[in-house]
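Worked example 2:
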Amino acid sequence: MEGRIAAAWALLPGYLGQHVLLSASALILGLVISLPLAVAASRSAAVRWPALLLASLVQTIPSLALLALFYPLLLALSALSTALIGRGFPALGFLPSLLALTLYSMLPILRNGVAGIAGVDPAVIEAARGMGMTDRQRLVSVELPLAAPVIMAGVRTAAVWTIGAATLATSVGQTSLGNYIFSGLQTEDWVLVLFGCGASAALALAADQLLGLIESGLARRSRWRIIAGAVGLAVGPLAALAPIASTLGGTAHYVVGAKDFSEQYILADLITDRLERAGAAVQSKQDLGSTFAYDGLKTGEIDTYVDYSGTLWADILKRTDNPGRAQVLDILTRELKARDGVVVLGSLGFENAYALAMRRSEAQALHITSLDDLAAHAGQLTFGADLEFLSRPEWRAVRDAYHLSFKKQDQYQPTFMYRALSSGQADVISAFSSDGRIAADDLVVLGDPRHALPPYDAVVLVAPKDASDARLLGVLRPLIGKIPVEAMRAANLTVDRDADKASPAQAAKALEAKLGL
């Protein structure tokens, strides 16, 4: 436990600095947009109604969905920019997160701004007119100072919302305190989850209190409160940004991507460690969805990551046939290179295939060993799937091939999917064949006699811009064909088990040592 807490503390400066940078940038940009808009809206009903409607509409969109929606938009704009001027811009990470969180921060600032300005006593405004003040002078010297406490209350709400929502930016490749939460949930490391939640809550409370100090200072005309709050808001972010200041202007030699489960963290740490020993500066982008990861690689925002042949076959090539393991890998290698310039360096030596699994006791009681057997009992069973599976072509292929119709279908984050099976809330799950929990939980993987599921070789992908990078290829090539599924399953289990849990970095070092890599 002490080692896990120490490891979490070691990550805090980098995660906190990135989180503060993103949150502060989004809040400042939200203020720059919302305050002038609030002034215009307080003057004109024609501006007020659509502005508040649009800001309210943004709030109805879940923040995770809003973050995800900006990525394809920026990707398309980057491609257009490249076509027009020969230069694109990063569509993954900071920029989509900044734009989404800026929109998310606007409603409370805009609504309180309109209410504060509109709520100024008309007699005071009339007196200002009588003194010969222009509209601008009245706004700056009378209306805004009187409305300032109400506006600051909106800024406080926006700050808390923005800091909380910024944890979700991890899903689009932006480092934040959400890295603790996402990776902790996937590896069942509740120390990391609590650390991430606690750090985010503490940051939000600190920002709220400092803004509250300014708010009360404006209401009481207390200069020292305003100054104390402003100093705190200046010093706090600067202190948080100090550990990452040296890296903000620089560029890592390589960016290693990873999806959002234990095996991906282990393999990304394995590659990162090898690159760093080769003298390279390396940045990690973890907890990416399949599409984000591949698109990031294709555009050069990620240099390398591990994907799976079946995922690429179904998602990228849109293929539904299954010509066999060797042929799938051969076709992928040729077509991804020809279409996107992506290099499929080769298989690591194991498959991590989608597979349907049951508790051994229940499978034996119902005499189920294959998906054909399962079809006869599916109407009485509950199916638990990971968050992607039911929307993927693999599920449609399995469902149609075996005519599966379950009594109930639920979706879970993978950690809780296994928990649902062990607790009896699910009878069948969409497991992963290299997962150590299959052996640890004594699960039965059901046979696929109709070959509805494609092969899922773990393959190393390299970005088009790195196709001839000798250092990167020299680090990656020794891994090809060297990791058997038994070794990967054992490494995964060390991260996923409850007792004596290892971190992904520790599991990566142990795997490398065990295989002599």
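The chain has a mean pLDDT of 90. The beta strands are 254-257, 282-285, 304-308, 343-351, 354-359, 382-386, 408-412, 428-432, 443-445, 457-462.
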